[in-house]
Amino acid sequence: QLDRGCALHTAARGGLSSVSSQDVPAQRPRAIFHTSESDPAKHTEQHEGRLYNIPLEEVKAVFPHGLPHRFQQQIQTFNEARVMVRKPALEILAYLKGSNFAHPAVRYVIYGERGTGKTMTLCHVVHYCSRQGWLVLHVPDAHLWVKNCKELFQSSYNKDRLDQPLQASVWLKNFKTSNERFLQEIKTQKKYMWGKRESTEEGRPLREVVEQGLARVRSASDAVGVVLREIKQQSHRGSFRLLVAVDGVNALWGRTTLSKEDKSPVSPEELTLVHNLRKMVTNDWNGGAIVTTLSQTGSLFKPSSAYTPQELLGKEGFDALDPFVPIPVPNYSPREFESCYGYYLERKWLQHEKAHTEDGKAELQFLSGSNPRQLDRLAGPL
Amino acid sequence: RIMPVRWSRYNPSYLEPEAKKESYQKPLEELTEEEREHMELKAVRPIKAAPPSLSSSVFSDPMISKFTNMMMKSGNKVLARSLMSQTLEAIKRKQLEKYHKAPENEKETIECNPYVIFHQALKNCQPIIGLSNITKGGKTYQVPVPLTDNRKRFLAMKWLITECRENKHRRTLMPEKLSQELLLAFNNEGPVIKKKHILHKMAEANRAYAHFRWW
């Protein structure tokens, strides 16, 4: 009871609910879990534990491929996208606001146990950067590039490497949706030959390279490589800021489940996509930042209890990413749990009669261990 | 050597385990005479082992556990329980989407609680009267017979599960099929309700043989 009282005072200062339905006075104690501040740049510690709304058109424009599947289902059911503002995200935003872009890009590695909200933190940061007008290079899950690949072709650019046309074309399509205006502004600085007859001249907008990759699926991986190279070379000029957001960065340095035609295993360096992405994640360029997430869920040949950078990246990956800023993401604090529980109640997601009681709430907290994913899974059937 | 406990016959002196939290939180003064005697008995008599399906959770429901057990194949309770939870979630999502799109005056009529829908659907599927085979004079007759509550519940659940397993497209997943069936049964439509009506009609048609029943 006391906690709600204090929270009401801060709410009076911080702005109340933005829910468009009528605010019946009995609902006021629940409405403090929302905040009407939908610009991540203005989020501070005052907003910690509250949920902010992202308009649905923005979701389609900024996140064509970044959000977790269950969150997308939730957006469709509730007809709104609400993201919780948490401490790790606020930390990264503070670092980004105060960083000097003349220095080499700083690497941030978000790590934590399974289901604590690393991908959602990354999405919060991506939303902030796209609102600020940065160029966002968002790789939704690097693990998708090292497993379950149906077609592997030998790269025409370099005989040792292997191409992945499907994954590359999917990524190019989503990249185009999220960064329309930058593709028009950035010009190529070199002439690129796609096979014997087609080429892209110097000074053409990057949009043409992307369209070339989408039209000729065979050369999609090379198109991706060209795009990454151009963006990296031009980022230090200062006309735009670059954010490299990679989810599941430990895939770049592990093993793959793919094999060549003679059944020999493929190591990640032999894939063009992984090779080019590794070059992006090194800190030899300036004018932006690199925010990455470790993920055990999609990883290959790693035990399920592994969550620290040392275990998941291995020696090679750790040396490649060193030095980085580690950002741990913990389970929900009691305040964040209250906020999430209140949101589910308000949206009528918790329908069971006993879920509205104190006993039910205590049971949910105990069973989920304040883990966001477990709470979501438990609240589903209730 | 493992001693089998659950399906062996307990000595009649063994008492049932009590799982509900409320019964242990009552102070001594509030108990009635029988409850005090029961407490004293529990101090002396041994207690049976608690079965794994007995839970002290406020969210546990005996009908749902029965249904999950019937859906289970070769002892895979984990899979059966996850399918059940996915079904309830699917029902909730469909109803919530309908709820948010409906105009204000219709919002109260839409039921969003998956447990209410489940219970109501089961009640709608339960037959009132059943048929049993009675052999008289060399011929077997289908005789209309009253059913016990347990038998009615069992038949309703069995029909729902067999309907979902057999008469649907091969590639659809069980939660999707089950949620669709439960929503249809909730509105008194669908193949299971039809089967119940056919059974009732058969019983009505065979009314003449009702006197063959001797119990």
UniProtKB/TrEMBL annotation, chain A:
What domain of life is recorded for the organism? Eukaryota
Q: Which biological processes are named by the entry's GO terms?
A: apoptotic process
Q: Name one GO molecular function term.
A: structural constituent of ribosome
Which InterPro entries does this UniProt record tie to the protein? P-loop_NTPase, Ribosomal_mS29, Ribosomal_mS29_met
Q: Which one Pfam family would you cite for this protein? A: DAP3
Listed under GO cellular component are:
mitochondrial small ribosomal subunit
Which keywords does this Swiss-Prot/TrEMBL entry list? Mitochondrion, Ribonucleoprotein, Ribosomal protein, Transit peptide
Q: Where in the cell is it found?
A: Mitochondrion
Does Phosphoprotein count among this protein's keywords?
A: no
Q: Which SUPFAM superfamilies match?
A: P-loop containing nucleoside triphosphate hydrolases (SSF52540)
The record's similarity note reads:
Belongs to the mitochondrion-specific ribosomal protein mS29 family.
Q: What is this protein called?
A: Small ribosomal subunit protein mS29
TrEMBL record, chain B:
Main subcellular location: mitochondrion
Is Methyltransferase among the key words of this record?
A: no
Could you name the domain of life of the organism this protein comes from?
Answer: Eukaryota
Intracellular or extracellular location(s) = Mitochondrion
| GO biological process, alphabetically ordered | translation
Could you tell me which InterPro entries the record lists for this protein?
Ribosomal_uS7, Ribosomal_uS7_dom, Ribosomal_uS7_dom_sf
The UniProt keyword set, sorted, is: Mitochondrion, Ribonucleoprotein, Ribosomal protein, Transit peptide
Give one Pfam hit by family name: Ribosomal_S7
Record's keyword annotation contains Mitochondrion: yes
Q: Name one GO cellular component term.
A: mitochondrial inner membrane
UniProt lists the family membership as follows: Belongs to the universal ribosomal protein uS7 family.
Put simply, this protein is called: Small ribosomal subunit protein uS7m
Native organism is Vidua macroura (Pin-tailed whydah)
